[in-house]
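Thread: PH domain-containing protein, structure

OP (GT): Posting the sequence first so everyone is looking at the same thing. Length is 153 residues per the record. Can we get the structure tokens written out before standup tomorrow? I want them in the notebook alongside the other entries.
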Amino acid sequence: MVTVRPRRIRVVCWLSAAALVVVFSLVATSLTGRTGDGYGTFQRGDQLAMVGLGVFGALGILLFTRPRVVADARGVRVRNVLGSYELPWEVVRGVRFDRGAPWASLELHDDDLLPMVALQAADKELAVEGVRALRRLHQAHLAALAGDPATPR
């Protein structure tokens, strides 16, 4: 079984989310007194709303830590930022990681490309090893279909 999650983007997202909550909290503490020349004044609810906006923004950033690829002899499960896919190896033509591409993708028999955001070029060697492991699993499946006696079933 192969499980791959991006490393660099998770670190960046967690640090960014924490920084966003801190900044919004600091801004919330500065919201005091009058709003200008009008009759309005900042209330405790305004401060709490500002902190809440920071928390919601941080949760939005943390969505980018969601991608993962899990593969075994039966197939591959791809979880991207907003979608998830579970595919048997029969529908996969190949595993691609084109030069200059931000992430790897699965080439399907219907000529679709399914991006795998978990295998990002920014992770360098981790992504390369993940792609190689997926290719080995795919090749083992193809060999089993061809009836190769050296391949365990």
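GT: Both are above now. Quick notes for whoever picks this up: Helices lie at 8-30, 44-62, 125-145. The mean pLDDT is 90.
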